[in-house]
């Protein structure tokens, strides 16, 4: 078999391994998935009328439309924390050392984690999106091309955050530390345009909220699904995704190829 065929075979095996782990131990994924769902229900049914009035909307349905795109991206950040924990567990419990002694493609171990995490992120986004639709979210003006672009953005963003989460997991001494190190993936959406527009934040804080990774991606997704202005956010979102994916890839590869102590 060629090197490419061997890499594809071993990656497929590692992907099945990670998906089986996720199926057999679903508690972590479910706990992380509950965070964006609970925030969605909380901000819609308890704060919805007040928040809608605050952003100039007419009623709660306007705020649902505003909120859901941000929470879809927050779902990706939440899901990838499980990836950091899973990678750290593999690194600290000896299975990676065992893989190093086997005749398998070295990169397949990391790639299996990444592909598995992206699949789980997409499934989680679909579930949160279904909850959003159930409580009133609608995207009637989006064309087929815009829906396709929105899906592509979600997958690319999931890929970028997953590579960062893999790097965090590899440098963490245990699963608990990996979970703590990956907390910015949930914290950053809270200080983005997920819940309120950036222009309604304190002036000194607006540049921080506007140019962090989540806000451009949220505004781009919101524009694609709701027909609002995207402006320069599309290019910023694409740039952040490529930068984070590249950084995470080389970081993870360097740590994985490092000789074990």
Helix content: over 70%
Largest sheet: none
Radius of gyration: 19 Å
- Please identify the structural class as seen in this structure: mainly alpha
Oligomer: single chain
Beta-strand segment tally: 0
Mean pLDDT: 86
Low-confidence stretches: none
Order of helices and strands: HHHHHHHHHHHH
- How many helices in DSSP terms? 12
What gross morphology would you assign?
elongated
Strand content: under 5%
- Termini separation: 33 Å
How does this structure look, described?
- With 261 residues, the protein is mostly helical.
- It contains 12 helices and no strands.
- It is elongated, with a radius of gyration of 19 Å.
- The two termini are 33 Å apart.
Put the structure in a nutshell:
This protein is mostly helical and 261 residues long. It is 77% helix and 0% strand. The mean pLDDT is 86.
List the defining traits of the structure above.
12 helices; mainly alpha; 261 residues
Question: What does the secondary structure layout of this molecule look like, with pairings?
Answer:
Elements: H1 3-24, H2 27-45, H3 48-54, H4 60-92, H5 95-100, H6 106-134, H7 144-171, H8 175-181, H9 184-190, H10 206-211, H11 214-226, H12 233-257
